[in-house]
Amino acid sequence: MGRPSIDLNNLPYPDGDFFGFERQLEPAERDRLREVREWLDKEVRPIAVDCWNRAEFPMGIIPKLAELDVVSPVRRQGYSNLLAGMIHAEFTRADTSIATFMGVHDGLFTGSIEALASEEQKQAWLPDIYALKKIGAFGLTEPLGGSDVAGGTRTTARRDGGQWILNGAKRWIGNATFSDWVVVYARDVQDDQVKGFLVDTTLPGYSATRIENKISLRTVQNADIVLDNVAVPDEYHLKRANSFKDTNKVLKVTRLAVAWQAVGQQLAAFDVARRYAVERQQFGRPLASFQLVQDQLVQILGNAVASMGMMVQLARLEDAGTARDEQSALAKAFTTARMRESVALGRGILGGNGIVTDYEMAKIFADAEAIYSYEGTHEINSLVVGRAVTGIPAFV
After folding, report:
1. Run of H or E residues at 73
2. Are 189 and 222 in contact (CB under 8 A)?
3. What's the alpha-carbon Rg for the chain, to the nearest Å?
4. DSSP conformational letter for 280
5. C-alpha dist (Å) from residue 86 to 71, 152, 310, 334, 394
6. Sign of the dihedral defined by the CA atoms of residues 65, 82, 72, 266, in that order
């Protein structure tokens, strides 16, 4: 059985932008968003389910992404944070795995270089990174360290003359099975501070093994990384990455990107559920003609609109340079909680067809779990906000 063939463009509010948030973009930015959306419909959506089923990354998409030229839209191309967020939401709407590939390469990896490398390092590295000639990964999370990695980084760095010797392990590192470079964060054994290093994946002692048996983001090639006396020249130490506070400059921004992913995931759930409800016949009439189904569709849409409204304002704060860590934390916690509810409602609307990937919803439902967990769990982000509004830290 194939998925329903309803054309969303023939339905009211075909883009799901119920409050017209996209109209807040400048005309040139609206054109750019439309260009990206059309590209995703042509290049990503048709292959997304098959890649997910096979747990294989479509390497042929990388040269096409390079032609689309979407890496670093704010710093390099001068676009607004609002457009950058909406583009990331559209990527997720088409396929969460490809969006996560971009989030790792563009947000976490490229963001680390842009924020924490010296000017000389940026000039040497960024051209190939922007052009996707060099693919990057971001090595922070560890096998025994997730939310507590700020104070519990076990991977070590030891200065040895003109080089650093790295030892340890990283886990859940997206893109790492095929990336050219990985930014690795390791604790300096001399001053006990977390520092950042650009590691060439061909160096002796570096290995990456793909994590198998995932039920979420199956297309993403997450890996376990082992660093066994990996010698990194000092010129590959990110000169502005000398404490975890420096690392957090990157995470603050990428946390926003994940919240935009939660928006895109909800729009994807709405797209699929609405299309199915209009097409599917039950008791001799469209499923969408039943009151309870309409109520569920409206709840999904309401969650998506509320999430997008929060993100639109946060993008404005980012453009003004006034966004705070706790605002990013609230956005990530709130939007992903609404997303979890939305994809569950969408899966329910499809009934039994909601648990097979033929109709897309099963993939959307499963992928939401990764978004809910990475870039800080719901609980940790809630505690960040709680500390901000009470002045009292409640962390263990």
Report:
1. none
2. no
3. 21
4. -
5. 14, 34, 13, 17, 33
6. negative
Cα–Cα distance, 92 to 98 (Å, whole number): 7
Describe the chain by its helix, strand, coil percentages, rounded to 5: 55, 15, 30
Phi and psi torsions of 217, nearest 5°: 50, 50
Give the length of the chain. 396
- Provide the pLDDT for residue 5: 56
Reference 364, options 176, 69, 95, 3; nearest CA is 95
State the Cα–Cα distance between residues 307 and 60, nearest whole angstrom: 33
- The tens digit of pLDDT for each residue in 314-350 reads 999 999 999 999 999 999 999 999 999 999 999 999 9
Distance CA 266, CA 258 (A): 13
CA distance 272 to 292: 17
Choose between 389 and 7: higher pLDDT: 389
Contact 102, 167 (CB under 8 A): no
Instruction: Confirm if 210 and 223 have CB atoms less than 8 A apart.
Output: yes
Query: What contacts 24+ positions apart, CB below 8 Å, involve 282-290?
Result: 287/349
Instruction: Check residue 2 and give its pLDDT.
Output: 47
Residue 9, C-beta contacts closer than 8 angstroms, at least 6 positions apart? none
What is the β-pairing status of strands 285-286 and 281-282?
Answer: antiparallel
CA distance 374 to 17: 26
Torsion sign (Cα): 67, 73, 77, 79: positive
Tokens of 38: 């059309």
Between helix 61-68 and helix 27-43 the angle, nearest 10°, is: 170
Q: Which is nearest to 226 in space by CA: 170, 144, 298, 273?
A: 170
pTM of the model: 0.94
End-to-end CA distance of the chain: 50
| Residue reference for tokens 């990206």 | 36
Cα(122)–Cα(129) distance, integer angstroms: 10
Tokens 């376990």 belong to which residue? 224
